[in-house]
TrEMBL record:
Residues 124-160, 297-320 are annotated as: Disordered. It comes from Rhodamnia argentea. Keywords: DNA-binding, Nucleus, Repeat, Transcription, Transcription regulation. GO terms for cellular component: nucleus. It comes from the Eukaryota. This is Transcription factor MYB20-like. InterPro entries: Homeodomain-like_sf (IPR009057), Myb_dom (IPR017930), Myb_TF_plants (IPR015495), SANT/Myb (IPR001005). Residues 131-144, 151-160, 302-320 have a biased composition (Polar residues). The gene is LOC115745375. GO terms for biological process: carboxylic acid biosynthetic process; regulation of DNA-templated transcription. Residues 9-61, 62-112 form the Myb-like domain. It is found in: Nucleus.
Length: 320
DNA sequence: AAACAGCTCAACCGCAGACGG
DNA sequence: CCCGTCTGCGGTTGAGCTGTT
């Protein structure tokens, strides 16, 4: 007898996730936490299988994910770990906080493998190749390198796309915040400094002008927002062409993510949404949510007034 | 401007291991 | 120990994007 499929295949949606689906999933997990993936789609009102939901969450929506290309250090670490562990991507990923096995696997296949081959190293055995490419004329090697650098720069555009996902998570939380107390927050530069936890330097900033969870900037919406507008940069490839922002608030703000690298334009008010430490685990968030409120309140790092609070005090506030 | 080729990476598939009854 | 269920993992695919001609 064949194994039962992981889910009823009939009637289930496949392919890229839409912003609406992302929103549902995020909202559900914020409210109920991660448990029983098989039940998630039903409860969240998604026409997906649980597996797909889990994958979408772990590989793309989780707020503690780093985004953007792997830094030099991370790349080196991946190579070292691969030499020790082989294709055990999840094990390798466990050594790189904020990175998923899928991401590392993709990066390995598209970048590192080529680099190693170019260096005359067999990416499988980590030993010198028989026919050593280092015998190639220098000019040829330079060509290769240029091409790689090119691909880096183009991938920064791809990295840019990923921001919309973080935006999306932001939006859900901020919506919750506004629903809860009807207040908006204001940016506080000194506070933003204190919120920064992540080691941004570890990023390959020459390649990608982003992005760590702690580096997510959120514009503070006016409290009486009803109309909608958005930056033109809400494309979200993985989400399958999101106009999520258009459905959301923040009308009077310039979400100037369109041109990356200048997201810290001084005229707009931004706050950091959250930092790594707070989202190692969602459970603290969810466990303390009053079921009747359904939506969780703001994360401390999301609230200008709360950034200095520890988790417990923040959750205590939540349930009030 | 259009056609084509190459590349990237989100998402899928199937298998294996863990776990509980 | 067996069986069924669920989750996690690694390999693979293909849509969409970018660069080149």
């Amino acid at each position: 007898m064949g194994r039962q499929p992981c889910c009823e295949k009939v009637g289930l949606k496949k392919g890229p996730w839409t912003a609406e689906e992302d929103k549902k999933l995020i909202t559900f997990i914020l409210t109920h936490g991660q448990c029983c993936w098989r039940a998630v789609p039903k409860l969240a009102g998604l026409l997906r299988c649980g597996k797909s939901c889990r994958l979408r969450w772990t590989n793309y929506l989780r707020p503690d994910l780093k985004r953007g290309l792997l830094s030099e250090q991370e790349e080196k670490l991946v190579v070292d770990l691969h030499a020790q562990l082989g294709n055990r991507w999840s094990k390798i990923a466990s050594h790189l906080p904020g990175r998923t096995d899928n991401e590392i696997k993709n990066h390995w296949n598209t970048h590192i493998k080529k680099k190693l081959k170019k260096m005359g190293i067999d990416p499988v055995t980590h030993k010198p190749l028989v026919s050593n490419p280092s015998d190639q004329p220098q000019s040829l090697q330079n060509n290769h390198q240029q091409k790689d650098e090119q691909s880096c720069s183009t991938s920064s555009a791809n990295a840019a796309k990923t921001r919309s996902v973080n935006d999306l998570v932001d939006s859900v939380v901020i919506n919750a915040k506004e629903e809860e107390d009807g207040t908006s927050c204001t940016a506080n530069a000194s506070m933003l400094d204190t919120i920064q936890v992540m080691d941004i330097d570890s990023f390959c900033t020459d390649e990608v002008p982003l992005i760590g969870p702690s580096d997510i900037l959120v514009a503070c919406p006016p409290s009486s927002s009803t109309s909608s507008s958005s930056s033109s940069h809400n494309n979200s490839c993985g989400g399958g062409g999101s106009n999520f922002f258009q459905e959301l608030q923040f009308p009077d703000l310039d979400w100037s993510y369109g041109d990356f690298g200048d997201h810290n334009d001084g005229d707009n008010q931004h706050i950091k949404l959250w930092d790594d430490d707070h989202f190692i685990n969602w459970d603290f968030l969810v466990d303390n949510v009053d079921d009747k409120t359904q939506m969780v309140g703001p994360h401390p790092a999301n609230s200008c007034q709360r950034s200095a609070l520890d988790q417990s005090s923040w959750t205590n506030e939540l349930v009030k």
